[in-house]
Amino acid sequence: MTTAPTAPTSPTAPASPAEPTTADATAPTALRLTPVAGRIGALVHDIRLGGDLPAGTVAALEAALYEHKVLFFRGQQHLDDAGQEAFARLLGQPVGHPTVPSADGRYIFELDATKGVRANNWHTDVTFVPSYPKASILRSLEVPPAGGSTVWANTAAAYRDLPAPLKTLAESLRAVHTNDYDYAARLALRPELADNAEVARLFRDVFVSTAFRTEHPVVRVHPVTGEKTLLLGAFAQRVQGVSGDDSKALIDLFQRYVERLENTVRWDWQVGDVAIWDNRATQHYAVADYGDEPRLVRRITLDGDLPVGVDGAPSRLLEPADPPRVPGLVPAEELEAAN
Ligand SMILES: O=C(O)CCC(=O)C(=O)O
Ligand SMILES: [Fe+2]
User: Fold this and answer.
1) The domain that contains 208 carries what CATH number?
2) Residue 85 is assigned to a structural domain of this protein
3) Angstrom distance (rounded) from CA 298 to CA 190
4) 284 given a catalytic annotation
5) DSSP 171-203
6) Which listed ligand is nearest to 150 at the C-alpha?
7) Could you tell me the pTM of the whole model?
8) Check: complex ipTM more than 0.85
C-alpha cells in the first residue's frame, strides 16, 4: 500500500490527510492507492466518483494519474452518463470523437461488443488527429462471464528501456498516423465479423467518413511530466522518409518495447469499474477472448494538446487538405461554445 501524493507538511496541516484545510482546499489530498503492476497502474480505494469531488481530491487524482498512468476504481455503479461527464469535467474538457457520433448526443463513446465494436489492437486513442485526447475515462456496464480484460502499456517506460542508440534513432523519426487502414487485417476481428456487412458499413461510412493523416514525432515529450514517450500504436502507418518494408520494421521494432509484458498492466473488469488513463503516456488493448458474450463499456475522452518531439517540432495534419472543424483540430471548448 502506498499513499501519494501527500499534502505538504506545515504547522497548519490537518491531522487527517483526508480533510483539506479551508486555507488551501486545492492542495492535493492523500489518496489510498494500491499498485496493480510494477511499472503501471494503481487501484484507488475509498472514493465515490462524481462531479462533486473536492478540488484537493481532484488534484491528487491528477498527480496519481501522471505517476501511475492508469487509475482503477471499483464499485462506481452509481455513475450514469451524466455523472461520468460531470466527473470528467473536473479533469478536463470532454471532447467528441472526430468521426463517430456520440451515444448520448454529448460526449459518450460506446464500445458494444454485440455490435462488433472491439478494440483488440494496441493503440493510443485517436492519434490520427494532431491534438488527440490527453486522457480517457472508461466505465464498465456489462462484462462477459470470462475474459474481456483490458491491458495498458506504459510508453514512457518503453522509451526508457531502449538502448541509447535506439533512443537516438527514435527521437529522429516522425510517423504518419491514420484512421484509414485495412481494419479487417489490423483489428484482427473474428472472420465472421470481418464479413459482417453492418460492421463493414460502420467502419467505412462512419469511422473513416473523413480520412485523416497526421504526422507525429515517434518520441513525444509529455507536456506535464517532461517524460519522453513512444508515440506509435495501431494508427501509426509508416515512418516519414522510410520506404514500406523498412517503415514497418522500424515501427515494429519500437512497438515491441511498448508491448513488453514488464511495461503492462492487465485489468479484469467488474460491472461498475472505472479506468482512467493518461492517453499521452500509454497504449491499450481490449482482449477479445469472450466469443459472442456481451460486453459494454462507455468512454469519455478529454481534449488534448499539440504533441512536440524532443526538437520541439509539433505534430501536423497532412490530410485532409481542407480540415474540418472537429475535435483534435479545433479546441473542444470552442466546439462546445458553438453548439
Ligand atoms: O474495451 C475496452 O476495454 C477499451 C476500449 C478502448 O480502446 C477505449 O475505450 O478506448
Ligand atoms: Fe481505445
Assistant:
1) 3.60.130.10
2) yes
3) 22
4) yes
5) HT-EEEEES-S-HHHHTT--HHHHT-HHHHHII
6) 1
7) 0.90
8) yes
